[in-house]
Amino acid sequence: MTTAPRYQGKYRIESTRLPDRDYAANGWYFVTICTRDRQHFFGEIIASQMQLSLIGKIAQQFWVDIPGHFNYIHIDTWVVMPNHVHGIIVIDRPAELSSVPTPHVETLHATSLQRQSARCQSMSDISPNAKSLGAIVRSYKSAVTHWCRKNDRGDFGWQTRFYEHIIRADGSLDRIRQYIIDNPAKWESDKNNPTNLWM
To answer: For residue 161, is it within any domain?
Structure first.
């Protein structure tokens, strides 16, 4: 029997990123972002319906706002669950822009860039591509965290990493959309099985 690798004494999830994949390339990406220790910061499922907490409403609003802060980025099907967010992010830049570096990417809370922590800034500095999927997710996570800290909800936190899956032209888009839509109804059977968060 094999066991998962450990990092600082804790089990961790292996990266699903493809080593040769340009995650700033045009494409459809299914992402899952979990809260720290999968705590139920975003609300609860009642009668197969998600009841958002205040933080859940903020997480939802900031997710919907993503296209307003990144050019040529769209969102498709998504859901905020008690301890994670599932969503489809679409990168669709015109061909002439797809390989041209962008000098600046506006974050979800650009007016407070100077007030970000040193850790957030260092993460931004080491980003492989300011237009990448990772930069979008990092900006989203940072915006929610910033709101929570500013509004006396400093106990909120995300898992460090996130899961992503490249949606290929093989008919899987509709299956993934349906998986996202069905998530609240399947919560009772899935909530104690972390592997189901990763499809």
So the answer is: yes
- Kindly state whether residue 168 falls inside one of the protein's structural domains: yes
* Domain assignment of residue 174, yes or no: yes
Residue 50's CATH number:
3.30.70.1290
The secondary structure of 84-96 as a DSSP string is EEEEEEEE---GG
Instruction: Tell me the C-alpha distance between 166 and 20, whole Å.
Output: 13
Q: What is the pLDDT along the chain (199 residues), one digit of tens a residue?
A: 434 444 344 433 344 444 555 656 889 999 999 999 999 999 999 999 999 999 999 999 999 999 998 989 999 999 999 999 999 999 998 876 655 443 333 445 443 333 333 333 333 333 446 678 999 999 999 999 999 999 999 899 999 989 999 998 888 999 999 999 999 999 987 766 554 554 4
79, 86 contact by CB (below 8 A)? yes
Helix (H), strand (E), coil (C) string for 98-116: CCCCCCCCCCCCHHHHHHC
| Rounded Cα–Cα distance for residues 109 and 188 (Å) | 35
Question: Which tokens sit at 193?
Answer: 């099985």
What domain range is 74 assigned to? 31-94+105-185
Beta partners for residue 79, in sequence order: 86
What CA–CA distance (Å, rounded) separates 5 from 30? 24
Most distant pair of Cα atoms in the chain: their distance: 51
C-alpha dihedral sign at 178, 181, 185, 186:
positive
> What is the number of structural domains in the chain?
1
